[in-house]
Amino acid sequence: MSHRIAVIEGDGIGQEVIPAAVEVLESLDLDLEFVEGDAGDAVKEATGEALPQETYDLAADADATLFGAAGETAADVILPLRDAVDSFVNIRPAKAYPGVNAVRPETDLVFLRENTEGVYSGHEDDLSDDLSTLTRVVTTSASEKLAEFACEYVDGEGFSVVHKANVMRKTDGRFRDAVVRVADDHGVDTDEVLMDAFATRVCLDPEQFDTIVCPNLAGDVLSDLAAGLVGGLGLLPSANIGDDNALFEPVHGTAPDIAGEGVANPMATVLSAAMLLNHLGYSEESDRVETAVETVLAEGPRTADLGGDADTDEVTQAIIDEL
Ligand code: NAI
Ligand code: MG
């Protein structure tokens, strides 16, 4: 079956790392059709809109979208794009790769973050000169949906539910109850960890965790913390998954300090492309791409962010040669 992939480079090094990842995907000779769309600062300057309707529609209608990064307009691009693919879960792996200087080289975690509600659902008000409020939204349905996804994702393994239901009894209580109930129904083991305790425990001993299921804000903060454990944001991929659609993007931004020089590290985007392959059912090819990245990380060549002097093309070619 042919799959249609929307490709949105965006700004800065998005225009270097996305073509690199597409080259890797093309080298696999799968039945993938790539369709390009524009978004970001440059498009806003030219048209007044950071995310033109036709790019939104392109992502909404594609089987999957690969997105680079946008500069100043990042929020105006990425939030509607996540909405275009109707994503209810954000997948953020944090894995320490060989040859990379990690604080905790034994780290190998995946965060499954609720992606639609919590404190990010947009209900914030200024009530007076002295008072602002925020309404935290948690539904049983969104929590159950995340849990259903998690049960399938872990494929027979258990997962950790990270929350703060001892204080936010109604909201995180609802989240926790729904997730644990769905896991029980599927015969999936769960352990519960309070989110503040998790922050300490994951730093001291990341190996005690594998897959972490958590509400929106906790997932945002704790996955960035885990990124620190594996040596920073530079190598990290991510996915936003919806029912019929999904968006894959490196965690890093447009890197204006090196953009245009052809020296950006393409690996976070190539690993995002590997997640895309897995999502479309090409799990064997996905594993091969990840293994190729691991081999190149271990043996070189490397870009400057990893202490090497290779450019984007050399690293991309090395990954393709490995494949
Ligand atoms: P950044 O991730 O763009 O850069 C941080 C540092 O990491 C820089 O020194 C950069 O050179 C380096 N870096 C990042 N990715 C790299 C790669 N693939 N290879 C080699 N080095 C890499 O974050 P920063 O500087 O905070 O943001 C720059 C711009 O990117 C801002 O305009 C921001 O709004 C945007 N941004 C967009 C995101 C998105 O579209 N999803 C996410 C984060 C930032
Ligand atoms: Mg974040």
TrEMBL record:
<protein>
    <submittedName>
        <fullName>NAD-dependent isocitrate dehydrogenase</fullName>
    </submittedName>
</protein>
<comment type="similarity">
    <text>Belongs to the isocitrate and isopropylmalate dehydrogenases family.</text>
</comment>
<keyword id="KW-0560">Oxidoreductase</keyword>
<dbReference type="GO" id="GO:0006099">
    <property type="term" value="P:tricarboxylic acid cycle"/>
</dbReference>
<feature type="domain" description="Isopropylmalate dehydrogenase-like">
    <location>
        <begin position="4"/>
        <end position="319"/>
    </location>
</feature>
<dbReference type="GO" id="GO:0006102">
    <property type="term" value="P:isocitrate metabolic process"/>
</dbReference>
<dbReference type="InterPro" id="IPR024084">
    <property type="entry name" value="IsoPropMal-DH-like_dom"/>
</dbReference>
<dbReference type="GO" id="GO:0004449">
    <property type="term" value="F:isocitrate dehydrogenase (NAD+) activity"/>
</dbReference>
<dbReference type="Pfam" id="PF00180">
    <property type="entry name" value="Iso_dh"/>
</dbReference>
